[in-house]
Amino acid sequence: MPAALWIAHSRVSDDAAYGEYAKRATGAIEAHGGSFIARGGRYVQLEGQDSPRNVVIRFASLEAAQACYDSAEYQEALSYAKGAAERDVVIVEIND
């Protein structure tokens, strides 16, 4: 089964609430086998809408990433991001 990347682009409007989301989401993601490849840091926006916060997480499979997103732990964390950021999130299977 191919690995997958969870890719999130965020435009944060409430740093405190989003910080709480990030803290709680980290535990949920790691508990589901996710490992952070990129989390914030330098970037170059080449096309599309600028997203100053970019995160890439590797999972063992697309299904594992989806299970993490759907989990009660992650959904609880996500409640802190609602209204605190505009986000685009996608899970992409890796073609090895």
UniProtKB/TrEMBL annotation:
Pfam families for this protein: DUF1330
Taking every annotated instance into account, which residue ranges of this chain make up the domain DUF1330? 4-93
Q: Where do transmembrane segments lie in this chain?
A: none
* Top-rank taxon, per record: Bacteria
* PANTHER family hit by this protein: BLR0684 PROTEIN, PTHR41521
What protein does this entry describe?
Uncharacterized protein (DUF1330 family)
Q: Which organism is it from?
A: Pseudoroseicyclus aestuarii
